[in-house]
Amino acid sequence: MAARQNYSAGRQQYARRSSERNSASAQMYVYGNVVTKPAYEPRRHEKSPERPVKRTSRQVRRNRRQALHMSSAYVVFLTIAALMALIVCVNYVQLQSRITSRSKNITAMQEELADMKEENNTKYNAIMDSVNLDEIRDKAQTDLGMVYASPQQVVEYDNPATDYVKQYESIPEDGVLAQSDKNSK
């Protein structure tokens, strides 16, 4: 305590001397381009007096100790919960990684499909442009002797079973190949 009083007394004397110096230097004229800055010191705040310590009852202290104490079952429960949370987080990150890689794979396949479709359309258009149906008809009629069918040669028929024909036998004169249950009713 005595050291503290001596220290604060020394500080007060220093503050008085520096204020005297500052007032004297404020009246002096300083030559040159460098002006010394006055030394300012922050004010020291005195500590507030300490509050008296209240004595707590034995029951309050026991309750506080019990509140701070964790049982071994609670520690095990917290450890298991933390491990489960860690496992869930790791699985979530792995799932996100798989989703991202599959998304990139799908994007690459879609680009490949678009390229193949474009190439296929280009080849199809080139083939269609190279085929001239008038030229083929003229060549078939003149060189190969093709003639159009006469109306007596055309036989129309109803095929109720399917919408396409596979001819394994002759087509009957009446034009009906087969009867289905739908048409007979």
TrEMBL record:
Basic residues biased stretches: 54-64
Transmembrane segments: 71-93
UniProt keyword annotation of Nucleus present: no
Residue runs in coiled coils: 99-126
Compositional bias per record (Basic and acidic residues), positions renumbered to this chain: 40-53
Keyword Transmembrane among UniProt keywords: yes
Keyword tags: Coiled coil, Membrane, Transmembrane, Transmembrane helix
Comp. bias (Polar residues): 1-11
The protein's name in its UniProt record: Cell division protein FtsL
Organism of origin: Clostridium scindens (strain JCM 10418 / VPI 12708)
